[in-house]
Sequence to fold (168 residues):
Amino acid sequence: MEETRMITQVCIVVRDVRTANENWAKILGIPEEKIGTVFPPGILHYTHEKPAEYTDCQVAKYQLDNFVLELIQPGTSPSPWRAFLEKHGQGVFHFCIQVNDRKGFQKKLSDIGVNLPYHIGYHSGGSYSYVDSKEQLGLELSVNNEADYSELMQNLLDGKASPLDEIW
Fold:
């Protein structure tokens, strides 16, 4: 199977998603997007291999012609987005790349010196993960994969699997 090579999303961390949403709508010449929570129910999140919840982050997503522009306002609880905002201020948090083979893609990342993901989320139809690739690529990368993760999710919930098992 040929590997997908598509940037599917650009994520920008903002202090005020309402203002950023209003301004992007004006710049793009389209209606403002609905602001909601980042993650719907049914996703298992792990940061540094520990379970995590991010219900207080707000997001607006613009489906543009060739990618999704995602605006995230972190909540007050610890999160990858809160850490980025505190360290760097507003800015591009990550590019997202869609891959067919997470394990193979992680090997490519490892070959250029990128460590394993520090954050990963699983849902029944796939997964996403964040890797710190600033030194190697100039920015953080989100790696998305569409696959049936329902068995892995159940094994995670039952304590029979660990986060990142699918890329070992």
Observations:
- The chain has one domain: 6-161.
